[in-house]
Amino acid sequence: MSKEYENQNVSYVIHGNYHLPCITVKEQNELHIGVWANRHRQYLKLHHRIRYYNLLTSERLYPYLAKIEEQAQTIFSQLVKSFAEKENVTEKLKADNPILWVRKMNNIRNRAMEIVNSEVIFV
Questions:
Q1: pLDDT per position in the chain (123 positions), as tens?
Q2: Burial of 80 by CB count in 10 Å (0-12 exposed, 13-18 middle, 19+ buried)?
């Protein structure tokens, strides 16, 4: 048996001996949360709990994470491109020696990932 009542602009539902608030959230747009944003979310959840829960309860967490995702992806792409240009990792190398190209590109991607993690994700 449950009853509803309102007290000081908050609606409550009574379930047995408990008064539970009726909590509703605003409708939010669908946002793309990718790998970078999920890493940052996990980092916040483990190491900055107050900030994480403040963002979550104020309904600003997912827009914040979407910005982090966009920023991290942009920096990552720029770093990979600039490292590849500096080290002459080109399509010609890819055609001539694909194994060497893969090795160099993996090295470049790993370095770029470490930079993005240290400057954007784990901050």
A1: 445 555 567 777 888 888 787 777 666 666 778 999 999 999 999 999 999 999 998 989 999 999 999 999 999 999 999 999 999 999 999 999 999 999 999 999 999 999 999 999 998
A2: middle
Give me the residue label for tokens 């001539």.
Answer: 96
pTM over 0.90: no
DSSP assignment string, 84-118: HHHTT--HHHHHH-HHHHHHHHHHHHHHHHHHHII
Q: Which spans in 17-97 are helix H? A: 35-47, 49-57, 61-86, 91-96
